[in-house]
Hints:
Strand content: 15-25%
CATH superfamily of the largest domain: Histidine kinase-like ATPase, C-terminal domain
Distance between the termini: 82 Å
Number of domains: 3
Strand order of the largest sheet: 1-6-5-4-7-3-2-8-9
Number of strands: 23
CATH class of the largest domain: Alpha Beta
Number of helices: 20
Shape: elongated
CATH topology of the largest domain: Heat Shock Protein 90
Radius of gyration: 34 Å
CATH architecture of the largest domain: 2-Layer Sandwich
Bound molecules: adenosine-5'-diphosphate
Amino acid sequence: xxxxxxxxxxxxxxxxxxxxxxxxxxxxxxxxxxxxxxxxxxxxxxxxxxxxxxxxxxxxxxxxxxxxxxxxxxxxxxxxxxxxxxxxxxxxxxxxxxxxxxxxxxxxxxxxxxxxxxxxxxxxxxxxxxxxxxxxxxxxxxxxxxxxxxxxxxxxxxxxxxxxxxxxxxxxxxxxxxxxxxxxxxxxxxxxxxxxxxxxxxxxxxxxxxxxxxxxxxxxxxxxxxxxxxxxxxxxxxxxxxxxxxxxxxxxxxxxxxxxxxxxxxxxxxxxxxxxxxxxxxxxxxxxxxxxxxxxxxxxxxxxxxxxxxxxxxxxxxxxxxxxxxxxxxxxxxxxxxxxxxxxxxxxxxxxxxxxxxxxxxxxxxxxxxxxxxxxxxxxxxxxxxxxxxxxxxxxxxxxxxxxxxxxxxxxxxxxxxxxxxxxxxxxxxxxxxxxxxxxxxxxxxxxxxxxxxxxxxxxxxxxxxxxxxxxxxxxxxxxxxxxxxxxxxxxxxxxxxxxxxxxxxxxxxxxxxxxxxxxxxxxxxxxxxxxxxxxxxxxxxxxxxxxxxxxxxxxxxxxxxxxxxxxxxxxxxxxxxxxxxxxxxxxxxxxxxxxxxxxxxxxxxxxxxxxxxxxxxxxxxxxx
Length: 625
Ligand code: ADP
């Protein structure tokens, strides 16, 4: 019975079949990479399941070409696929590679990205008019074939095949004017492609090649001989010396293995010998994966024990704050035959994880120092995660991360480090000022900002909701405390100004108490000297800021933690005299003013007004008077 592809797969398939892409070559890399994964899976299974016997020496990938039939065949002796797996794996885009491709397409609207990263099995339709997949698993005696000509669906049938593994027969498209598919039957082309894209595959990729051999020295007679040859060097990229690997090789490997359509921002390759010995090849992506900030995202590095893949995503190798790092670790100190649980507790693994962590910190630190532009790009993608790291686990890791985080500086109008803030502090400055809000623009317009700026102090603008929690965990940097300029206690006034402030509040105690009565949810109303041109502001007492209150409110279980708010009124603003006058002569209008001013202060602080209709009516009443 013929089956239809799932709709998403169909779209991708259409793109492949009618492909207008230039880089069709990559289909071979995709298929070989699948073969290698399948062999990894079988070998790993044999290590953990005594019933499965595998001779490691015999694991291989074979490429066969038939110029007469116009077929190119790729064979592996890996894990194979059952009927259900053929259906599930090849009938749907279930997997990372193809999904990432779709994402990339939608995001970039740039069809050329296809050549750049793993697009999976379907890419074979770029060069084939028909594909047959024949497969058999170790557990089952029957073999099945999956046959498709592309758009019109696929058919799965029982067939004869007695080898465990998968055989993929590509019936190449016919050549047309400017597109030659016959080149994929050419020995030299195939050899070049395998060397270019799949050299690091750790299993032999074998193909029959023609050897031009001298058979008679005297006569200088040559004869062509056919011979099976291993085309790839099989040295994994992470074991090669840095000088022998090009940037392009690393990029290809990253995009292929980790299904990204963009090159990595940074490649970190290292070989460590000593207490533990390991090779690692780590990548910092240039952008956060689409699911990075969701629960679905799984951190981890691929873990190899002496060249054998034992865990796809070993999460113990990365702390949460570096969960964006991708890569491979290969160590001879890890035993192949132990369970994952024991492995995860092994001391070697812990030592490797520690060493990897310091390596990443070191690399990021030098990127920050030597290539600020790149670091800014990195921080844009993953800075939030580092800030989480500062406050997670009760701030346990804050010292490792505090010099890697950036905040927006009002002085510099860009992101700076805390070190840079300290270096540029004014002589008499004792504390680090910060303000938080929804966006840099909005913070910059806060009434409280004006006075501090006038005194030429730099202010860190915190616009991400994790920011204040990170600052809270740090508490101080190089013995300088962090001070929220929206706290009512920020002390920047001269003694004279303080006296004036005190006097204004004492003299108008009744008026202020009355205002507080009218506005039931503020904890204090006071006159202030610190607002230059603005009439009112909302400040807070205590440790919970307005931005933190917003975060708590947004949490699913709505934690009822509220900021203690203070309505401050500029005692030098004409509105102040107006209030005094109304308090004496017109209580009704006084109350309306109080409510309007309070709503103004809330709006400036980015809080909603509880009853906007009431306030709007009050404003009209006052205007119409
Ligand atoms: P990806 O490799 O990114 O998962 P593909 O479209 O290339 O996506 O392959 C889909 C799935 O089909 C694979 O995840 C794998 O389970 C299965 N598969 C593909 N090729 C083989 C193979 N040669 N042997 C066994 N399984 C395979």
